[in-house]
Amino acid sequence: MENQKYYQKQREAILNDTSRKQLFKKLFELYSNSLPIILVRNDGNIQCCYSDSVELAAENIRDQIIAVDNKIFDKYKDKNPND
């Protein structure tokens, strides 16, 4: 039961983090404001790509999201009832 409360609080902290929400919004806006490159492969499959600069910016934002997540995990690691 203690584990369940611990993980629930951790999930709530992650989902309610304002800076994390802003980063996801920034990532969404980056892709939605960028023009995708559509490729039709020889096998008929369609692939959607973005320019290298867009993908590099998106990777940077994703790294920031991971850093925020890790910060939250570290904060709650000290409160883990299993330790």
Question: What would you note in describing this structure?
Answer:
It is a single chain. The chain is mainly alpha-helical. Helix content is 67%, strand content 10%. It contains 3 helices and 2 strands, in the order ααββα. Strands 1-2 form a two-stranded antiparallel ribbon. α1 runs antiparallel to α3 and α2 packs antiparallel against α3. The longest helix has 26 residues.
Report the sheet-strand fraction. 5-15%
| CA gyration radius, whole angstroms | 18 Å
Largest beta-sheet characterization = 2 strands, antiparallel
| Count of strand segments | 2
The percentage helix is 55-70%
pLDDT < 50 stretches: none
Structural class: mainly alpha
Count of alpha and pi helical runs:
3
Features:
single chain; 83 residues; mainly alpha; two-stranded antiparallel ribbon; elongated
Secondary structure topology:
Elements: H1 2-16, H2 18-32, E1 37-40, E2 46-49, H3 52-77
Antiparallel strand pairs: 1-2
Task: Give a quick rundown of the structure.
The protein is mostly helical and 83 residues long. The chain contains three helices and two strands. Helix 1 runs antiparallel to helix 3 (52-77) and helix 2 runs antiparallel to helix 3.
